[in-house]
Amino acid sequence: MELIDGKKISAQIKDELKEKVAALKESGKEVSLAVIQVGADPASSIYVNNKKKACEYIGIKSLSFEIDENASEDELLGLIDRLNADDSVNGILVQLPLPKHMDENKVIERISPLKDVDGFHVQNVGALCVGKKGYVSCTPAGVIELLKRSDVEISGKHCVIIGRSNIVGKPMALLMLRENATVTVCHSKTANLKEICKEADILIVAIGKPKFITADYVKDNATVIDVGIHRDENNKICGDVDFESVSPKCSKITPVPGGVGPMTIAMLMNNCVESVL
Ligand code: NAD
């Protein structure tokens, strides 16, 4: 069994981006990302901070906007309009989730698709669907990079994805199709989940349930990618996969933490750099 080291691969990507950003600066181009946080949810603050730190490391200018939790949706939409019109801003990110009185879809659709570095705008999702250029959602894009940089062959392989969310499962399926995998998407209504998973050469798990996938779901020598992030009963971080029982069966597997997690920010930074290319 070989570990797919997301920490190492994401560090490589960030170093590559740092060089690109330095070269862009020399040619007079600056990369900038506007990050909007509504309210002060502690988990969101950690994510926002990590994004700012990554920007700083790579040399991307990050602009922070903090909006009060009780602010109106119009106030947020107005800020997005101003940032859309500002040529010095390349990327715009609204940290989710938003307070309940705001409509997430409406807010995402307001961001210019050309600045939607999260890849959530319908225009970018549609572009991915029909094979056109656009921003790709960061977590699934990170999974593709992990597989490619770990020499996992994708073309012609059977990839089973568990989860059909808009930010992970669905774009993941489209990306694996683009890489010529044969793709099966499973979800909460799938019958015979275990039997289907056992046919996977590549099993991608984004189910949102701690340690759900045990060894009896996994074919010998499969590659397993665990997107889940949770805290277990001992307050230790774990994934959707029961690493202890599954890892001895795999040819390659991502750990949690240190697998998919660090790739999401690396791919966000990649989208920011692409926004000026
Ligand atoms: P979600 O809750 O939106 O989607 C979960 C999916 O799993 C759903 O499509 C559902 O149909 C499916 N599902 C639920 N129960 C099932 C069952 N018993 N059998 C089969 N399918 C079932 O979650 P999400 O936003 O896609 O995230 C999934 C996991 O990935 C979560 O643990 C989340 O924290 C994590 N996540 C990690 C990153 C990262 O950067 N590493 C990014 C996003 C999400």
Structure in words:
- The protein has helices at residues 6-26, 42-58, 73-85, 104-110, 122-130, 138-149, 169-178, 193-197, 243-246, 261-274; strands at 2-3, 32-38, 61-67, 91-94, 158-162, 182-186, 202-205, 223-226, 230-231, 237-238, 252-253.
- With 277 residues, it is an alpha/beta fold.
- The strands form three sheets. It has a six-stranded parallel sheet with strand order 1-11-8-7-5-6. A three-stranded parallel sheet has the order 3-2-4, with helices on both faces. Strands 9-10 form a two-stranded antiparallel sheet.
- Helix 1 packs parallel to helix 10 (261-274), helix 6 (138-149) packs across helix 7 and helix 6 (138-149) packs across helix 10.
What is shown here, in short?
This protein has 277 residues and is of the alpha/beta class.
What descriptive keywords fit this protein?
alpha/beta; six-stranded parallel sheet; globular; 277 residues; single chain; binds nicotinamide-adenine-dinucleotide; 11 strands
SSE blueprint:
Elements: E1 2-3, H1 6-26, E2 32-38, H2 42-58, E3 61-67, H3 73-85, E4 91-94, H4 104-110, H5 122-130, H6 138-149, E5 158-162, H7 169-178, E6 182-186, H8 193-197, E7 202-205, E8 223-226, E9 230-231, E10 237-238, H9 243-246, E11 252-253, H10 261-274
Parallel strand pairs: 1-11, 2-3, 2-4, 5-6, 5-7, 7-8, 8-11
Antiparallel strand pairs: 9-10
Helix pairs in contact: 1-10, 2-10, 6-7, 6-10
Bound molecules: nicotinamide-adenine-dinucleotide.
Nicotinamide-adenine-dinucleotide binds next to helix 10.
